[in-house]
Design brief:
Layout (H helix, E strand, L loop, with lengths): L6 H15 L3 E3 L3 E3 L3 E2 L3 E9 L1 E9 L1 H11 L10 H24 L4 E3 L3 E4 L4 E2 L6 E8 L4 E10 L4
Antiparallel strand pairs: 1-9, 2-9, 3-8, 4-5, 4-6, 4-7, 5-10, 9-10
């Protein structure tokens, strides 16, 4: 998988998490996941079209999701993921992907994104036929890990 397609996700995540939530990240070891794979119990899914097509899945455990939502909501305690907390997390995914699209555009590549979908539950499993999934673990300064699972192919029609 071409690194030029992975780096924009890392760059955008680092920028948005710092600017929006004051969260610093350190990059974990990037690896390829085999399908099907199980995810954490909070995921944000954003579709991708354009130069590449596929999806980005932001995966975090509930405790980390609550920490992130709390920081985004000016420190208000978040013990459960109510609709306001879910909205904040969805918007975070949307902002990261919007910034990713801007980074791609700066490199002469065009992508569009779909509105985010947030799912919660135990043992969430993803099966992606014919797509390689690259997992980017981000260690968060608030504690916990956010994994960004990128599954896409180059769009030869574009």
């Amino acid at each position: 998988m071409n690194v030029q397609y992975i780096n924009p996700f890392i760059e955008a995540s680092k920028t948005v998490l710092k600017e929006v939530a004051g969260i610093d990240i350190t990059l974990g070891k990037i690896y390829v996941k085999t399908s099907p794979y199980t995810s954490s119990n909070v995921v944000i899914i954003v579709g991708i079209t354009g130069t590449i097509k596929g999806q980005a899945v932001f995966s975090i455990d509930k405790a980390t999701a609550c920490k992130i939502a709390s920081v985004m909501m000016m420190g208000s305690p978040v013990n459960e993921l109510d609709e306001m907390a879910k909205s904040a997390l969805s918007e975070l995914g949307n902002m990261i992907m919007g910034n990713t699209a801007t980074v791609f555009y700066g490199k002469g590549l065009k992508i569009d994104i779909t509105p985010p979908t947030l799912l919660t539950g135990d043992n969430l499993q993803f099966s992606l036929n014919k797509l390689t999934t690259v997992s980017i673990p981000l260690n968060l300064s608030v504690g916990g890990i956010m994994e960004i699972d990128i599954s896409f192919i180059e769009n030869t029609q574009n």
